[in-house]
Predict the structure of 1-acyl-sn-glycerol-3-phosphate acyltransferase.
Amino acid sequence: MKYEQDKLNYKFSWFDWFCLWYPPGWLILFNRHWQRYHADPDGWNCLEYILFLIPGGFYLALLIRWLRLGCRFPRQGNEEFNPNYQQAFRQEILAPIAKYYFRGELKQGENLPEKAPLIVAINHAGMSFPWDFLVLAYLLGETRNWTVQPLAGVSLFEHPWMIWWLPPGWSKVLGGVRAELDDFAEAVSQEIILLYAPEGIRGPGKGWFYRYQLETFHPSFISLSDRYQIPISPVVCLGSEFLHPWAINIRKVGKIFGLPFLPISFLMPVFLLFPSMGVWAMKTQLCYYVQPVCLPNNPTDSNHTNAYRRAQELKENMQKQIRELNNI
């Protein structure tokens, strides 16, 4: 859709500021912003928003919305990535969260290349909504005026909980690329800034007792870097382990519900009372340290064994930086 100039400024009301500082309200912020720019007759309404803020009220709001929609799921649209909406969301919603809540900092920015294409590889943790990704995307956009597209788990696009929480197509419109090999390869071939976690879902799913320990890096990003001659910019993130502290992953139960991970922690009773807090995370400072760029090899020299070895070498280099920065 085309954005009219007079609609490019979402004004924070007192209610929005309240939602920003009251954890169950973050989901309201996301949906209200979407509805400012998109017609969404199936979306949440004012009464349902109010119920989000009351213990147990989300369940009543969900029932009311389901009945209002004629006992069906929200309709799926044919949404496509919209850089204009990404910019509006970045400036109007992400900015106050990244600056004042997560206090995001990008360090050693001189190591960033000047232009696309680029694969930004980051360690991923937190067992929560991917705030380490979103804050880095915001900082890269502010630093280089880049349009950044993150590679996101499939559950962010199609899990039933996400379809009820957020507008259908929300992740795709904001630039999310499905974490599937064909989608990954297509995105890289389009010469974009792609934000990627080589650990995959194993990173945020490892839990508190394995914090700061990187999981095996999948070699696909090395192979695609070589094939399309795209440099890799490794970024070490500190602070993401505290997005959901003291959490452990109940993997077997999570699989029953089709979840990428199922965290259990002291916060879970609160989440059960306020399910809208699923997009919230604990307050922590997210610091990003940009490492020197890794240049691609000649495509003729690329093979799976070589790609796997180089991926694990990069993992060890990033692991070393994490230990040094944390004085472990």
In short: Residues 304-326 form the longest helix (23 residues).
